[in-house]
C-alpha cells in the first residue's frame, strides 16, 4: 500500500528492494518511531491506510511475508533521521562477475 516500508537489516533490505532502480547506489539507514505497532500475519492488509490505522489506535504495522520483518508507517513525521549509506551488493554482479559493486547490471 501507500506506506513507507522499512526492513530491519541491510541483508533484508537487499532482498526486499525490487523496483527497477533497486540495488543501485545507496541504502537508507533510518531511525523510525514506530509508536504503537499493529502486528499482522504473513500478509499485509493492502487496503490499510494511515487514517484506518490511526482509527484503530496504531501508529505502524509490522508483518513478515517470509523474507524478513517489515515495518510500515504512513506518516513521514515518524522518520526521525536518515543517512545514505553507499550500497554494495553481497552477490556477484551479473554484468561483470568480478564486481561486487552494483553498476546498474540488469
Automatic annotation (TrEMBL):
Give the species this sequence originates from: Polarella glacialis (Dinoflagellate)
* Domain of life of the native organism: Eukaryota
Q: What is the lineage of its organism?
A: Eukaryota, Sar, Alveolata, Dinophyceae, Suessiales
Entry protein name: Poly [ADP-ribose] polymerase
